[in-house]
Amino acid sequence: MSKPSPSNWVRTWIEIDRRSLFFNFRYFQECAKGARVMAMIKSNAYGHGLALIAKLLAKRQETSDKRQGVSRVWFGVDSITEAVRLRKEKITNPILVLGYTLPRRLKEAAQENITITISHFEGLRELAKLKKRPRFHIKIDSGMHRQGFQLADMPRLIGVLKKNRLVPEGIYSHLAMPQNAAFSQKQIGIFKKCLALLRDNGIAPQYIHFNKTEGIVRFPQSCFNMVRLGIGLYGYYPGRKLPIRPVLAWKTIVAEVKDVKKRECVSYDLTERLRRDSVIAILPIGYWHGFDRSLSSIGEVLIHGKRAKVLGRVTMDMTMVDVTDINHGVSKMKVKIGDEVVLVGRQGREYISADEVADKIGTTAYEVLTRINPLIYKVSV
Q1: S-S: 282 plus which of 23, 53, 256, 310, CB 3.0-4.6 Å?
Q2: Within this chain, do residues 227 and 119 fall inside the same structural domain, yes or no?
Q3: Mean pLDDT of the 13-25 span
């Protein structure tokens, strides 16, 4: 028996295709050639739902990979707040906080068995003050110049670690531009030098990770013993087609339909004047939900398997679209209140990807997905 549609009780929702999620995980797991996989679920799992994605992956591993002796999936989050939320959701998998952890929350990290990132000397000093210390990974700045210790910092870093008996569980860095092979190889070289200096001084981190999604594919020789799987887990990959599947579909409904005469204007600021008598559908989503205001007058959605153009300004909670051609098309199907609308995803033969939306507004699929309001209802299908 099929589940009732979410449209029976919510006006907009996210559908998570768990089979595609698992397929993508397995694909990159094979590409990583035996390295552990850290599933990046930071920033609300790139808009897909922090707890939902974590539970799906944790449960999947309990029922399949565990029998095959595969190590438990790690989860990568941005903040201690995200990590603690996962613990409250009964997620027991290893968790790494990649962002800065406030000193007053270090004890909490230790209590909740959460691993943190240390990327500067101030962080080491705060860690050294504690009797019970959380596990930590050292972040190396290999050329992106965001977080991390630089190569020149290594002698001092080694001294501080030894003096305070601080033993890093892991060490990692981050690719700045994977499509630039020469610069990436330079980064890999710097990272290896830092790792060698640590090892030469008796410091041997258990987990070594350098590659994110693109790196797993482009530089498999640098997967070390762990990789961080981000956007690829969700079915997107910058710059190249891979046999992976988008996991997220974002849907809403038609909330109202009306006829509007030629030369009338639609939405705020009267920016769009109709060139014909039109049928307009009002959708109960807007930029508060994450449907970007830059899609005003250029965005498209899917209704009855056809594309419908956004008319005028996207407003805070509502968006108007042109369904004239759908209503007057050969299908003879009239758009009505309650009809399903696809903002990102497939309907019939048509498909709107996060990449397509991103191209229209001059950004990336990362931003399109992570901007989706986290309060929107999510369901796995």
Answers
A1: 256
A2: yes
A3: 98
What value does the mean pLDDT take over residues 262-280? 97
Is residue 131 among the annotated active site residues? no
Q: Which residues are annotated as a binding site for substrate?
A: 146, 316
Q: Is 204 within a domain?
A: yes
E strands present in 197-354: 207-209, 226-229, 248-253, 256-260, 265-266, 272-273, 278-283, 300-303, 306-311, 319-322, 340-347, 350-352
The CB-side HSE value for 14 (13 A sphere, CA atoms) comes to 27
Residue ranges making up the domain that contains 370: 248-380
- The structural domain count of the chain equals 2
Residue 42 a catalytic site member = yes
Across the range 140-163, mean pLDDT stands at 98
The pLDDT, as a whole number, for residue 303 is: 98
What integer is the mean pLDDT of 235-247? Answer: 92
Q: Which of 42, 212, 251, 378 is catalytic?
A: 42
Residues above pLDDT 90, as percent of the chain: 91
Catalytic residue among 268, 334, 336, 377: 268
